[in-house]
Amino acid sequence: MLTTVFFRKYLCWLAAIFCASVLPLQAQAGGRYALLIGNQTYEHGGTLSNPVNDTALLEQSFAAMGFEVETLTDATQDVLGDAIDRLSERYGSADTVAVYYSGHGLQKDGRNFLVPVDARITSSASIERETISMDSLIEVLKPFPISMIFLDACRDNPFAANLQAGTSVTKSVAQTRGLAVMRAEGDMLITYATLPNTTASDGMGNNSPFASALARHIRTPDTEISVLMKRVTGDVVAETRGQQRPQQISQMQTEFYFKRTPNPTTITDPLRALLAVYPQQVTAGEEVSVVADVPPSCTPFFADFAPDGHLTPIPLQFFKSIALSNGQIRYEISPGSRFGLMIQETDALGTHQLGLVCEPKEIGGDKAAVRTVMAEVATKVKAGELAGFVTTGGYEPVEYRFERFTIQ
């Protein structure tokens, strides 16, 4: 049997019980554009740990949600300015635009500025000359039907020492922490990785807490963005033990969903299962994260469809479970947890489909009944329907959700 994903500390997966075909990725929808900026290595301001990793992670999530993605790393002032100019060229062709920035940001006199990697800030007066004003970015985004700004840009000021040596006005800029409150324009959402006037963490792992949470939740279907961002906030607060709390400023009047379930069912359970599997592409030595929020009526059966056609179960006891305030239960495996999903050299390359089925209570451990249900789920997944309900065997409708990831 080909093995799919291995646990870091424990024995390999249970024997495969079913087969399914591997399918190509879903076609991307038009009208969506994302500009992702990760400024990490500053010529005069040191080096941050994770902006490049953060943009790479989010590139996968935005692309999976049908966005055309442009990613910039270590962007100079000219490169940033040109990218913002190109945004205006999207008028009329993009109805949804998202901008994510990871790197250094400063505030002066209540205005915010993004810091290019070639900025040389030696005085308060040089800030506007050497940086990109958030006011100009907001002005460009305002005409779009829907726009979103995600600012993971509140690290400590790397130019503080230079500014401290200046005038009293310059010193006050050096002592100001984080970004100032901004006003959203048009149908716009602005999200700070942490509260205004405070600093955000680069994170202890490969990604910042905010980037990790955002990349994960973008991929959950049928969740309006205001609800989705509450979940991002909850995850960041939990990971940082209350030291960092994202904040949203919204003028959005339109409901926005990153992903809607194709062929929606007539069943309208407000607490349907949500699933995120990330990153989308992994190699040997990396870990796959799984987060699923399910209603209390759902006993999830987790499994992976491998490229060779086998379905391999993932034991439920390997997941951390948390009761959420909305009544759902979260099951999670993430990097650094006691039981991880570590990719091994022997794992099958190609596209995997990992997810869950809400096991019908009437089955009661009947293996034949499980095979019947999973047979219909496999047929649905083979047809490209990665989420929905099956009604085989005379049971109540059984919900299932799967996500794709690729081992390279």
UniProtKB/TrEMBL annotation:
Signal sequence bounds: 1-29
| GO BP annotations, alphabetical order | proteolysis
Question: Signal among the record's keywords?
Answer: yes
Protein name as catalogued: Caspase family protein
Domain annotation Caspase family p20: ranges: 32-158
Q: Which domain of life is it from?
A: Bacteria
Keywords of the record: Signal
Which Gene3D superfamilies does the UniProt entry name for this protein? 3.40.50.1460
- One Gene Ontology term of the molecular function aspect: cysteine-type endopeptidase activity
Please give the organism.
Parasedimentitalea marina
Database matches in InterPro entries: Caspase-like_dom_sf (IPR029030), Caspase-related_regulators (IPR052039), Pept_C14_caspase (IPR011600), Pept_C14_p20 (IPR001309)
